[in-house]
TrEMBL record:
Keywords attached to this entry: Lyase
Subunit: Homodimer.
GO molecular function: trans-L-3-hydroxyproline dehydratase activity
Chain's gene name: l3hypdh
Organism annotation: Salmo salar
Domain of life: Eukaryota
PANTHER family: TRANS-3-HYDROXY-L-PROLINE DEHYDRATASE (PTHR33442:SF1)
Name of the featured protein: trans-L-3-hydroxyproline dehydratase
EC number(s) recorded for this UniProt protein: 4.2.1.77
UniProt enzyme class: lyase
Lineage, top ranks: Eukaryota, Metazoa, Chordata, Craniata, Vertebrata
Enzymatic reactions: trans-3-hydroxy-L-proline = 1-pyrroline-2-carboxylate + H2O
Pfam families for this protein: Pro_racemase (PF05544)
Recorded family membership: Belongs to the proline racemase family.
């Protein structure tokens, strides 16, 4: 028996090591990665999902760095930690993590978690043609609907928390670009929106580095010049990032492209689920689309597609809001078990910028 045959015939197991094991399932949605943590975390304390988010940020952040940073992850890795929810109708709670910290909503993760929850039996007996999965995100309860047929999961759509336009035509001073007019909208997280052409860029053709630099400059300026607030919790009142668009906001059957730069200049490979939610809410606010008019959103990074539409009018505090439906597909890429050897000087992770 040759070497490859001998290796292949053995069950893949971790060699002798010290320390706990972190087990994960890796997926991607439209190219954007999601590392779902199965086991290895200490108890996450807190009475609710938002308090659990604060707890991991203050007490367990080293594990975020272990799983998101190199050598186990990379600068643009994204993660999801499944936790208990205090909401009776929730099938699971989730905390989102990335290169900078912890988000309040992540649509690409919800799409992946919908499949994951059905496949890993976190819900009651699956039903055809769709199985509903109630996911308690830090921003609130999100309802996912997972295609299910002949024992297999497929595409996923979800209904957002109330999404709303926070402010339109806001003028901010952006170093290197003078005054820039942006819109700010909420889709489970707050985003600033601006046309890429304002910076002389093309969302599909320009270098990613140039798009990231422009979006990051806008994010930093909005953070310093615009005070955000959310009607239900101050934990939600922060700008997550900037989304550069192709400017095609009026309703059309043709796809409209955008690129989301969030957290610490992290680039979303997908069209961005919470970003699509916020963009649909913005378009509805401006009268550019109507209820149940489906638009297709394309990632400027990978060309992958989500669809989005406003399905119901609602309110969020004093804001007129909509529930947005976003749909896409997620795929599995593998499973892994990670360890931290005691003599590994890089065991806590690092990032190269």
């Amino acid at each position: 028996m040759n070497l490859n045959s001998r290796i292949g015939s053995k069950k893949m197991e971790l060699p002798p090591h010290e320390g706990s094991v972190l087990s994960v399932v890796d997926m991607h949605t439209g190219g954007e990665p999601l590392r779902i943590i199965l086991s290895g975390y200490p108890e996450v304390k807190g009475e609710g999902v938002l308090s659990k988010r604060r707890y991991v940020r203050e007490n367990l952040d080293y594990l975020r760095r272990v799983l998101m940073f190199e050598p186990r992850g990379h600068y643009d890795m994204y993660g999801a930690l499944v936790v208990e929810s205090e909401i009776p109708e929730a099938d699971l709670g989730v905390l989102f993590m990335h290169n900078e910290g912890y988000s309040t909503m992540c649509g690409h993760a919800v799409i992946a978690l919908g499949r994951f929850a059905v496949d890993y039996k976190l819900v009651q007996e699956p039903r055809s043609p769709e199985t509903q999965v109630n996911i308690h995100c830090p921003c609130g309860l999100v309802k996912a609907f997972v295609e299910y047929s002949n024992g297999k999961t497929g595409g996923v759509r979800f209904h957002s928390v109330p999404a709303f336009a926070f402010a339109t035509d806001v003028i901010v001073a952006v170093p290197g670009y003078d005054e820039v007019t942006v819109d700010i909208s909420y889709g489970g997280a707050f985003y600033a929106f601006v046309r890429a052409e304002r910076f002389g860029l093309d969302i599909n053709k320009s270098k990613t580095r140039d798009l990231v630099d422009a979006a990051t400059a806008v994010t930093n300026s909005v953070k310093s010049q615009v005070k955000l607030h959310h009607p239900t919790s101050e934990d939600l009142a922060f700008l997550y990032g900037t989304i550069l668009t192709d400017g095609k906001d009026a309703y059309s059957q043709e796809p409209t492209a955008n690129m989301c730069v969030f957290a610490d200049a992290q680039v979303d490979r997908s069209p961005t689920g919470s970003g699509v939610t916020a963009r649909v809410a913005l378009q509805y606010h401006k009268g550019l689309i109507q209820l149940n008019q489906t638009r297709t959103f394309q990632s400027g990074a990978t060309g992958s597609l989500f669809t989005g539409k406003a399905v119901q009018e609602t309110t969020c505090g004093d804001f007129k809001a909509v529930v947005v439906e976003v749909a896409g597909r997620a795929h599995y890429t593998g499973v892994a078990s990670f360890v931290q050897e005691s003599d590994d000087k890089l065991k806590h992770g690092f990032l190269l910028k």
